[in-house]
Amino acid sequence: MKKSENTGQPDSIQYSLSDNEGGLLLSLSGRLDTENAGAFLREIKEGLKGTQARSVTVDLSGLTYLDDYGVMVLTEIRDMLVNRDAFSIINANERISNFLSIMAFDSTGMPGIRKKKWINPFESLGGETIKVMDDFRFMLAFLGEVSLALFNVLRHPGSLRVGDTVHFMQRAGVEALPIVALINFLLGLIIAFMSSIQLRQFGADIYVASLVALAMAYELSPVMTCILVAGRSGSSFASEIGTMKVSEEIDALFTMGFNPVRFLVVPRVLASLIVVPVLTLFADIFAILGGLFVGVFILDLTTTAYIGQTFRSLTLFYLFWGVMKSCVFAVVIAWVGCLRGFQVRGGADSVGKATTSAVVTGIFMIIILDSVFAIIHIYWL
Amino acid sequence: MEKGDPIIKVENLVAGYGDTVILEHISFNVYPGEIFVILGGSGCGKSTLLKHLIGLIKPLSGVITIDGEIVTEEDEESFKRIIRKIGVLYQSSALLGSMTLGENIALPIKEYSGLDPESVERIVRMKLKLVGLEGFENHLPSEISGGMKKRAGLARAIALNPAILMFDEPSAGLDPVTSAGLDELILDLNKNSGTTMVIVTHELSSIFTIADRIIMLDRKTKGIIAEGDPRYLRDHSPDPYVKEFFNPVKEKRG
Ligand SMILES: Nc1ncnc2c1ncn2[C@@H]1O[C@H](COP(=O)(O)OP(=O)(O)O)[C@@H](O)[C@H]1O
Ligand SMILES: [Mg+2]
Which part of chain A has CATH 3.30.750.24? Predict the structure, then answer.
């Protein structure tokens, strides 16, 4: 019955500006509503900027409909004036003047919204087992969606949620550094120690340096680092998104017209893609330090000799092959984490299962892909 | 009862998930400006029906049209046009937990209106004021009560002044006074801006205060067992289940 008042044509506001006893007279006619308020506001601000008006009178005699977006426009025009009392409204019809008083037009002073800080969105946990066939179909469909979303960001870089991306870089990268460094240092130490027992018998102590550098940079540090990232970040991606799913937040994003994949997955995937290779390089350094520790204190090698041997055997190709693998693993970990989150159905308990599954699937995929890389390297390169 | 063309038209809908059919042979119309209430026992598929109306779930068969456009149309443009006309208040309020109330409400406004940040803030403040949450724009959803969350969810649902508002059990988990306040808000919105309302509820008192027309769903028959004016149905429905639904206390004492 009153439907047309709410949907309306977007182009139906007309205005004219004229001089009025030293001030400006702005006459409006048609509808001023949600559809056209933004465009009209920009236009009228441009129009008023040059004029240095001391007072503005708005004539609403031709205006048939006004909603709260329209009230906002009037408020903005009023607040452009130095002196608010120089603003007046005339000839509003009864409906509109009633509406203006309901909206308390005279008291809508607006302080700014404080920028709030990020809170850690680990909220609740839960889950339900996922059926295998559907799971696979869903995985493929999801892979397609994520690829499309990433492609879309490449085409429109402005649409990237930069704040979220930086936040996830901090959580997946900076906060993971201590544990990644420690684990890889110890791993380098262990490999050096174990291999030295054998190599010593042949007087080949110095080759411990080569072994540690190659084994770590080529194979172990990308894999170890990514397993750690899968455990820390893959799981938290799954639980965050799963929780949002349970509390209908993802449905809400959808009904507001956002693409949940673009909104939630792209920042996470990009953030891992950026920080994981860097973590891997750090891991390489700490592993070599671990080997150096054994070389100097147990095998009585000199630091110079150890480092020299390391650089002789570690070619750039091996280093970058490892880093390249870690990039692929990073995307897979983030993708699996988000996938498991989106697969959550039902109550809070299914989030827990999604989290577990994100870690298990993530590690499994890392190992499978690592084997694929080994085969590629041996047979095709 | 006829009020021109229906704004929501459901024809022969079969609703469900995958292979499970929850509702079948569902047909009804909602007319512009009316308050339309969907009733039924727990688990009979009220939320499911609502999700089909929004287009979150595709019907197993049947057609849903909103303002002349088919809801499940693949075409992204027409989908966006439809979505833009609907505001939804979810059962759990569905505020994004990591954002303040102000940011939650600003989200759709920023996306669709093309206003600059200062204007968006003004609208956010007006919407919060409208639902009685003035000054709460910097609170997180976890810092406010259930009733306030509902109001904030409502403010977000009406952020873009949609032609249709849908509510999933707006009074669930609220005390009678708060829930009556929410009903009043719904009536005001309907009166002032002519917004069409589709409301899922069991709250008898709100049904008689706000509903223009109701349909009642039933789990056993998977269909609509009653349709019309709630006051008339209460007194004249021949169906024993409908009677019991409207007169639960009387039945027990009698
Ligand atoms: N995502 C889902 N997948 C499968 N079945 C569902 C799902 N959501 C709800 N159901 C089932 O649909 C039926 C109706 O649920 P619902 O529409 O939520 O009922 P209510 O009327 O209480 O809102 C219930 O039996 C429920 O088990
Ligand atoms: Mg429900």
Answer: 13-102
